[in-house]
Specification:
Helices cover 30% and strands 25% of the residues. It is α/β, with parallel strands linked by helices and 280 residues long. It folds into three domains: 1-57, no CATH class; 76-178 and 205-226 and 268-278, 3-Layer(aba) Sandwich (Rossmann fold); 229-263, no CATH class. It has a seven-stranded mixed sheet, sandwiched between helices. Strands 1-2-3-9 form a four-stranded antiparallel sheet.
Amino acid sequence: MKHARLLGPVAEYLMDHEIIPDNVRKFEIFNLGTRDNQDVIVFRCSETGVIFLNRIDRPNDPYQGRLSRVESSQTKDNLRRFKFLYDAVKGRNYVDVGCGAGGLLSLVSTIAENAIGVIPGVTSYDIIPGIYQLSEDYCHVASLIHVIEHMDDPIFHLRELKPKLKDRGLVFIEVPHANDFLLHNCDKFREFSLWSEHLILHTEGSLRKIIELAGYRVCFIKGLQRYPISNHMHWMIKGKPGGHEIENIFNVRRLNECYVRALKADNSTDTLFALAMKED
């Protein structure tokens, strides 16, 4: 790990687990500063595409996830996730690690036998403060939705979760994608999107390796596009968010479907989602 100290603790972690190479010539400065901290340096590995920060400037809150975002159970994202999880969680035990405002949790609770959220420092009838409080062999399905990128040791926390799952239990993971088209093609979006809470932006390869190192079998990892072409065009033309909420000529379903197919073919969607399974 001779070059890790030059790049910071996140790089040291990634190198230690052979997720990125121990070769300083394989790294470039991707951005100086994040939207909330101008002292952070954002690096990108040219060999793997993984993006990471040079420092960790926050309390160690491993399940931060969606805590900082107010969300409704009826958002398109939560309805999409609920539809995907429906058959797996119906009548079974479910845990949402880093459940935030509980939008997805409230939907799943209508069909699951039990539905529990994990948020540090919070205890209520359906929320616990840590994975450690779950009984072993408890849950059939767990989710970590926009949580992994906040963790300074995601392998540890995925391993911590494993004995809490039943045999062949499923883990659903969703993360921002390091290859996001706008991140590489719109400076204004890059300045808006990079955040000191996101320690690592993953590629398909890095996410797969972390899941496998934690002892799970990867069922699949797929690209997902959350924001439509109208959002992208607004960023490219105006340099501002919210284009999908404005009536414009790009809000056409068939046009967006073609655009999403192109992004998937180019491996440049804004999100990755993975399904993994516990196998002893």
